Amino acid sequence: MSSQTARPRLAALSSLFEYLCEKNAVTHNPVKGVKRPVVETYEGKTPALGDHQARGLLDAPAGDKLKARRDRAMLATLLYHALRRDELCRLKVKDFEHERRGVPHLKVSGKGGKTRYVPLHPAASGLVLDYLDAAGHGDEGDGALFRPVHRGRAEGAAAAITADGVYKIVRAYSAALGFKIGAHSLRATAATNALDHQADIAKVQEWLGHANIATTRIYDHRKTRPEDSPTFKVAY
Asked: Which end of the chain is more exposed for a tag (fewer CB within 10 A), N or C?
């Protein structure tokens, strides 16, 4: 087992035997003294794209066909709003139509039934409107926003694109550009890019829908950049 798998399992066993000792079901905790493996790193292993790679991916779906319009809109929604695959698949047409304090927002249904509202990026908004105009389901508020495309047409309101479908789309376009990634890399890219451009980490946590800020810190690679070292902050 990997270190990250073994550590929590040993911890669970230790807790179990501590409980059994308290209840006089066993005489001792056999896990006590067992050396737990060191976790290699707390940094995320999901690769984040560079700016030029992200730009290339956004431009990858070429042409005016419905599939290309849909794919451009999906990639932009992922890269500009840091959504999970499942969150993208759950989006309905009406979720794209929210406004708060005069600013368009995207209503996102996250993990554990939690809802968050994310300001809509103008670049993504334009591409989604272009897709809806071509697909013709912009007035179906309760229908799925992103749908499978069959023979140049979007399928019915109940047919939302699947998480596996999103993964395959990202995989195919990125592979054609020379780097093969999964959809989660687009979430990591958005988070890393926002932090690199001095976004407040607490706001990024809320934006991503993380319950714990420690999870958000996984995407913060600023500490690894030489130019951000305290060395260059010293002045005499």
From this structure: C
Domain formed by 51-221, architecture = Orthogonal Bundle (1.10)
Q: Bridge-partner residues for 118, per DSSP?
A: 106
Q: How far apart are CA 102 and CA 109, in angstroms?
A: 21
pLDDT digits (tens, 9 = 90+) for 156-194: 656 899 999 999 999 999 999 999 999 999 999 999 999
Planar angle of CA 29, 33, 37, nearest 5 degrees: 120
pLDDT, tens digit, 9 for 90 and up, residues 44-96: 567 888 899 999 999 999 999 999 999 999 999 999 999 999 999 999 999 99
Give dist(CA 209, CA 217) in Å, integer. 13
The total number of residues written for the chain in this structure: 236
Nearest to 79 by CA among 89, 88, 92, 91: 88
Which pair of structure tokens corresponds to residue 77?
A: 């929604």
At 109, is the pLDDT very low, low, confident or very high (cuts 50, 70, 90)? very high
Look-up of token digits 């990026």: 121
Residue 211 CA to residue 20 CA, distance in Å, equals 32
Task: List residues with catalytic annotation.
Answer: 84, 111, 184, 187, 210, 219
What span, in angstroms and rounded, lies between the C-alpha atoms of 236 and 72?
A: 51
Give the domain ranges of the chain.
Answer: 1-40, 51-221
